[in-house]
Amino acid sequence: MSNRIRILGLSGSLRRGSLNTALLRAAGEMLPAGAVLDIHPLNDLPFFDEDVEADGIPAAVAALKAKIVAADALLLAVPEYNGSFAPALKNALDWASRPHGESVLEGKPVALFGASPGLGTVRAQMHLREVAIGTGMHVLNRPEVFVGQAGGKFDETLRLADEPTRAIIGRMLDGLVVWTRRIQGPAAERVA
């Protein structure tokens, strides 16, 4: 176990101009000392299909699962589509939880945040929490980060410019590092 906390960021939005992916990039600018963030795109994942799984795990799925195994924690950027979270993120979690009994999500600390042009991503994050419980992940409960009216909080280069939003994301990242060390156990806390 290293004293560095390795965080894997996944965005549920596949769009090039995604504000949720921009949130992940912003998080990378605000990491606490001793933490690193790797953002892994989900564009190449096939839809989960047990027939495909039976024929052999696709390379894109194997790459995702290897990144999750190597990470100490996950940071999920959660867009809200029709009152729930995005199918791309659900698909990634379905693959990561398979095959039965070999989930790479079990016991993984995770923080959720999301951006929306509307009121935020409250419903999407609540649904994702249910999936997190079902897959054995440990969700950081506070602070909750719901970035509403998100279009006005980014500049023309998709850099997060809103200081109050940056501040709460910074607090969430601090909390994720502490939460991860707590879950890893006393040896990890002493290293910090």
Automatic annotation (TrEMBL):
- Every copy of the NADPH-dependent FMN reductase-like domain together lies at 6-150
Residues of the signal sequence?
none
Which Gene3D superfamilies does its entry note? 3.40.50.360
Query: Superkingdom, according to UniProt?
Result: Bacteria
**Name of this protein:** Chromate reductase
Originating species: Inquilinus ginsengisoli
